[in-house]
Every structure is written in C-alpha cells, then in structure tokens.
Fold:
Amino acid sequence: MTPSPALDSLRASTALAHARLESQLAVAAPGATRATYLEYIQDMHGWLRAFEQQLWSAPWPAEVEAASRAGKLEWIECDLASAGIPAAGISALPRPAFAPDLARQASRFGLAYVIEGSQLGTKELGRRLRAQLGDWEPRWLQGYGAATGSKWRGFLHALERHVRTPQEINEACAAAAAGFASLAEWFEQCRAQRAAIAETSET
Structure:
C-alpha cells in the first residue's frame, strides 16, 4: 500500500511522541511479568475509558466499521476479571485529565490512529510474555486476531480517503500527537504513583 499524505504526515509528526511512549512500556521490556501486564492494562483502561465510547459513537465513514473497533475496554475488563480484579476495583481505577476534541472527523482519525496502531504490537507482546503468562491467553493481547492486518489496512484506506486537505491533515496530526503524549505522561504518572506507594509501605 502506497502511503498517503495523511499517513506520511502522521508518522513524521508523531515519531518523537511515539518513541517516548514506547520507552514507558515496562510490559515490553525484558523481565516483564504477569504483574507487569496487569499494571499495563489497568493504566490503559484508565486512559481509554475517558473517551472510548465518545470516539467510536461519533459519526464515521461506513468503511471504518466503527462498531467493530469499539469495546477495547471490555477486552481489558475481561483480563482484569480473569485475574481476580472485580468490577468495583476496575471502576475505581484513576483516569488522566485527557479530554480530546472529537468534534471534527480528522481529529477522530488522528486519535484512532494511536489506538488502532497499537493493535499491531499485541501479537509480539504476547510472544514476549508467553512464558510468564503460562496457559492464560489475555483478551487484550489477542486484539483483532487473524483480522488485525486487514483491520489496519482498512483503517489506512479510510484515512487516505477522508483526511486529505492540509487543514484535515494538520488536525489529525495534532490529535495523534496529543494522544501519544497523553498516554506517555499517563504511564509516567502511574509508575511514579506505584513507586510512591511502594516506598510508603516500606517505611
């Protein structure tokens, strides 16, 4: 697939923010454990629940198949429940002060670029964690399963068709950069909070 101007711009404008985010992912680092994975999805849940319903219930072109992309919070909740974390504990998880502007379609595409792109790494993450997870096959790590590649290509085709003008591309890039930055900051905050709690418990 030939990259579109929108995709080229998204990749270029979010490269640094994307790299910063990846540096925060303890779950992708050597030595990650089942506990690391559970911390990771709790943090992801806090970030996603601030806007997931609003994002995918907004108007989208039919080819995006927005309804099939919603529900990632449910994947995480399934994993947390199977790990013994009840619904009450999930609802009590903190959430970041991130309120993306989703009024414009281009901005929605930009934020969705962050979320949908993350699904590409789930299989590799699952392989890295296989020994630590044993027989457990977390729902989040399954992503779209065998349809992951086709879902991503479908999203990129829609991006190319519907984010075309310089203004639309700029809006999408700004939303994607804000999404990456917000998620990286959120991981940093959660890690610092856990460190503070651990330090307090040791004194």
